[in-house]
Write a structure and sequence with these properties.
With 124 residues, the chain is mainly β. It is built from no helices and eight strands. It has a domain of 81 residues: Immunoglobulin-like, CATH 2.60.40.
């Protein structure tokens, strides 16, 4: 078959009523379900779906991270619907250990350079 024309499908993306999941809908009429290829990363959704004489292609950047491994998709009457939970932005946060320090810090001279001057505390 000759090369298909690539077209962007009509796309809608929104948060569900509870704002727990992202819902993305692609209108891809005529694409057989077994040829639809969807890949989801934390920050994007990628779609390719050949249909008759066209190939639907889309790359959607997301404004909030999602959990791609929890995505679910349904395809009915030419409408692909993907639901994927939002990721808590603090989920992979790393706690930073804070070391106690004295009131005065010491500076070292770098070889070949003089030490930084000490600043005087403001008076007043």
């Amino acid at each position: 078959m000759a090369d298909r024309i690539r077209v962007a499908p009509s796309t809608v993306a929104y948060a569900d009523r509870e704002s727990l999941k992202l819902v993305v809908e692609f209108a891809i009429p005529g694409a057989p379900a077994d040829t639809v290829d969807v890949k989801i990363l934390e920050d994007s959704v990628h779609l390719t779906a050949p249909a008759r004489d066209v190939e639907y292609v889309s790359a959607l950047a997301l404004g909030w991270p999602v959990k791609p491994d929890k995505a679910e998709a349904t395809y009915e009457n030419g409408l692909l619907r993907i639901e994927v939970p939002f990721k808590d932005p603090m989920e992979d946060a790393v706690k930073v250990v804070i070391k106690a320090g004295g009131a005065e810090t010491k500076t070292k001279a770098i070889k070949g350079q003089a030490a930084l001057p000490k600043l005087k505390a403001p008076t007043g």
